[in-house]
Amino acid sequence: MSVPIVTSNVEELTHIPTPTTPLKVEGGQTIVGVKDGIPLIQDSEGNLVKDLSIPVKKLPSGNIEIKTADGKQKSYQRLVKKYMLHFLF
Q: DSSP assignment of 24-61, as one string?
């Protein structure tokens, strides 16, 4: 499945989390995607679920910024659903 990355500022993106390239955040959760500005994690059955407990900062572009486990800020696109991504330029 190919899912577009929706962003108005691609240069702002610092990482695109997926189940194969996850990102550990400051609170200890592991983000595997982002949908509509909400971080997604995998539940115990492997399903992608929204995690509203992860603090995000909405950027003017519509992207979001999240603090990682190492204390750095990372910017993410508004939408990622599954494993394969298709970039629109």
A: EBTTS-EE-EEETTEEEEE-TTS-EEE-TTS--EE-TT
